[in-house]
Amino acid sequence: MHPLQRVFRAQRLSAPLTSMCWVLLRTFRAHNSTSCPDPEGKSSEGVQKDFSSRLATGPTFQHFLRSASVPQEKPSSPEVEDPPPYLSGDELLGRQRKVYLETYGCQMNVNDTEIAWSILQKSGYLRTSNLQEADVILLVTCSIREKAEQTIWNRLHQLKVLKAKRPRSRVPLRIGILGCMAERLKGEILNREKMVDLLAGPDAYRDLPRLLAVVESGQQAANVLLSLDETYADIMPVQTSPSATSAFVSIMRGCDNMCSYCIVPFTRGRERSRPVASILDEVRKLSEQGLKEVTLLGQNVNSFRDNSEVQFSSTGSANLSRGFTTNYKPKQGGLRFSHLLDQVSRIDPEMRIRFTSPHPKDFPDEVLQLIRERHNICKQIHLPAQSGSSRVLEAMRRGYSREAYVALVHHIREAIPGVGLSSDFITGFCGETEDDHLQTVSLLREVQYNTGFLFAYSMRQKTRAYHRLKDDVPEEVKLRRLEELITVFREEASKVNATSVGCTQLVLVEGFSKRSTTDLCGRNDANLKVIFPDAEVEDITDPGLKVRAQPGDYVLVKEPGRLWREEKGVFFFHCARNP
């Protein structure tokens, strides 16, 4: 039995073409012997002579040897990396300008926001939650569906008014687009909305201080270059909520699955994983800060593969779930997700471990066995199905059939008794017939998920479906099918979640309920939200002592069968505190 635990504390520079050419021209002429006149009136011989004199008085080879042998003290905050030749170190400093960050989309974007803020904070920027006092507004965006992008366009129209009304006595208001939308649309954003000052793709957050410095000169700036190795492994994200009980830890970035409907490989790039050591170090720090839950994040989190340690580079290829295939050649070597999950779960036995978003193909038996054996690895698995039709799944390039998916569900439930399942579904994909739709309905009834995320298909440029398939399901049909899926999901989820009535469950307290100051809320092992009275309860670590639960505490609650409700696919249990 788990005792009640007390927590005692709460792409490149987008300058005008002439400017860019001038920077390159100066670099070229300093190393070239031609005698073309310099734009500043100096001959190339003069420039070369000046360069030679500076070279003669510069550091020698011995200087670099001495510098390498003596540890250098890190500069005090704010920290500034070596500036590019067209900017001074002072220009990279934030000078206590206030940054307002707004996050849209998935959990990865929440983590990206924390990474971006960590970088800006070290450069001397301040964080504000008041939009009116912000000097810089950064929107961390999503491109997974057209609706997500339209939300950003609408927000930009609102911010345009705010920027126009900015008093001239204050520094100019700067607005930036970060994340997937910046990566997907690139220059279209700068051309369509002149009030946007900067773009930074998911792999360019380190460049934010430079981009903001360029913007201060009156130019738009952008870096939307994707990386083959950027994981931000050396950056400790700054928690946006000081009272948080949980945190996201990014373990890998990008995706290689190339599902035909998905934009992620084009906005997030190829898969690359953080070194295991850096992940373990971050989780330890979070544990020391008193956090009680971490969620390991990745676009395809369970395909994690750390190749940073040479001794593991020659190990065999990954084991796939039975009946599943990949759209790419099997990858050899590296430390796999099962190894990472094992190590993370050992750091703090009282810290819950979750992970998202996985792909069904990457659930070998060793991962399932770990989830079953370790009490602090939550018995909840997200298992995106996307469709219940094998024909549609093939068109989606998912790498499995309906039969293989259902067999995996049965295998997981046998391996992990009482496991909670959640899933993603897309309705109205290219060529989906009414029979395909009914097969998805039947899958929802057969599996009975605890939680679901259901959407109508939205075609994205660059994807395989955009180039090779036809978005031929009418919008009204998509919406009708979506409503039918939602109705069936709610019916089946109600049945499976009702089995919790009368059961005592361990709940991690998150804080007060949003609907009542007399109730607390938290989540159980299956990631279902539980609401229970804020009343004194006996602390079983100190019999006779009455305490009130605080965020970060574990409490035992019992669902008595009185009240429970569901909103937008998320179930809320109203419980009585277990005596």
UniProtKB/TrEMBL annotation:
Pfam name, any one: Radical_SAM
Keywords, in A-Z order: 4Fe-4S, Iron, Iron-sulfur, Metal-binding, S-adenosyl-L-methionine
Record domain MTTase N-terminal: where: 97-217
Domain of life: Eukaryota
Domain Radical SAM core, first and last residues per copy: 241-495
Segment forming the signal sequence: none
Residue ranges of the region described as Disordered: 68-90
Cofactor: [4Fe-4S] cluster
Database matches in Gene3D superfamilies: Methylthiotransferase, N-terminal domain, tm_1862 like domain
Bilayer-crossing regions: none
PANTHER family hit by this protein: CDK5 REGULATORY SUBUNIT-ASSOCIATED PROTEIN 1 (PTHR43020), MITOCHONDRIAL TRNA METHYLTHIOTRANSFERASE CDK5RAP1 (PTHR43020:SF2)
Full protein name: CDK5 regulatory subunit associated protein 1
Taxonomic source organism: Rattus norvegicus (Rat)
Gene transcribed to yield this protein: Cdk5rap1
